[in-house]
Amino acid sequence: MGLFILRRLGVMILTAICLTFIVFWLTNLTPNLEKLAKTQGNFRMSDEAVTSYLTNRGYMQPLPVKYGEWLGVLPGYEIQGADGELRRRCDEGQTFCGVLQGEWGFSTVFKDDVSSIISTRLALTGKLMFWVMMVMVPGALIIGVLAGMREGSRTDRSLSIVSIVSTATPEYVSGVVFISLFATGTFGMQWFKGTATAAMDNATFENFLLPVITIALYGMGYIARMTRASMTEVMTAQYIRTARLKGVAFHTIVLKHALRNALIAPFTVIMLQIPWLLNGVVIVETLFNYKGFGWTLVQAASNNDIELLLGVSVVSVFVVLVTQLISDIGYVFLNPRIRIS
């Protein structure tokens, strides 16, 4: 197990380096840098002034050097501009000041440290993700198990249709429908008068249910379908047939014999919902004006906030890789055949 984890960690580090380098390269393309210079300076800046601005702040260095400085494995630049002013990436007396040292940069839009912005917005999205998981996972497992217990039955067909419809309906469609039906009072049903913006400080049933349900319904159908397929396969296994021939009660067979084995495959799917939720809430947070991690990603991308966009990308990569590692380890523990092999 230890060697397995070490191999996975090695792959994670290499993957993280490759992905962050690609994002760093894309955000540091010449058009983005020129737009940044004109945004921070003057939109009527000449090409010479733009070049001088970027040169004085280290943006015109070779890409590997800039990436190393941003990552914190190379010393930060010290450049004396044409105006005679000495500009440093790091504070005086500090040699390395990158992501590895906890220096994530400064947001040009929010005028605050990137690490502070991300921690605040990530906490808000974490609250949203927690309640989504509390609704989505139990509901999906119940639907999947009930549908898979008796393949081809009326219950199976009905629940399968519900799962397919929920998965086939995007969040931006269901979100708009829910807002129209239950929040605006257009059809005389203004049940939810709160806003998701207010839920940032004080989440209540009225202001938080609609975004939670919008996200949960979309993911619920996929998990339910996977659970149903796994449950159907387990119910046709030889040991289940033997138990039924011995006269064991059907509910005992389902709860004590079939359920644990049927949940092995859905466990991986459930774990992979975490990175999907982190990055997939972009539409819902924007739609409901809930200023979490996804909303921050949209703001950073639309306003060319390079440092914030890089910070958001690092967090996204980290969450995806860590959840995949936890998924792999959990799958090994749940499946004895893999552990023995």
Give structural notes.
- With 341 residues, the protein is mainly alpha-helical.
- Helix 2 crosses helix 3, helix 5 (114-149) packs antiparallel against helix 6 and helix 13 (293-302) runs antiparallel to helix 14 (306-334).
- A hairpin with a 5-residue loop joins strand 1 and strand 2 (86-88).
- The model has no long low-confidence stretch (mean pLDDT 84).
- It has two domains: 2-101; 114-340, MetI-like (MetI-like fold).
- The protein has a two-stranded antiparallel ribbon.
- The protein has helices at residues 2-27, 30-40, 47-56, 63-71, 114-149, 154-168, 171-183, 205-235, 238-245, 250-262, 264-280, 282-287, 293-302, 306-334, 336-340; strands at residues 78-80, 86-88.
- The chain starts with a helix and ends with a helix.
- The radius of gyration is 25 Å and the shape is elongated.
CATH level-four homologous superfamily name of the largest domain: MetI-like
Largest sheet: 2 strands, antiparallel
Q: What is the global morphology? A: elongated
CATH class of the largest domain: Mainly Alpha
Can you describe this structure in just a few lines?
The chain has 341 residues and is mainly alpha-helical.
Summary tags:
341 residues, mainly alpha, MetI-like fold, 2 domains, two-stranded antiparallel sheet, 15 helices, 2 strands, 2% strand
How does the SSE layout of this entry go?
Blueprint: H1 2-27, H2 30-40, H3 47-56, H4 63-71, E1 78-80, E2 86-88, H5 114-149, H6 154-168, H7 171-183, H8 205-235, H9 238-245, H10 250-262, H11 264-280, H12 282-287, H13 293-302, H14 306-334, H15 336-340
Helix pairs in contact: 1-14, 2-3, 5-6, 5-8, 5-11, 5-13, 5-14, 6-8, 7-8, 8-10, 8-11, 11-14, 13-14
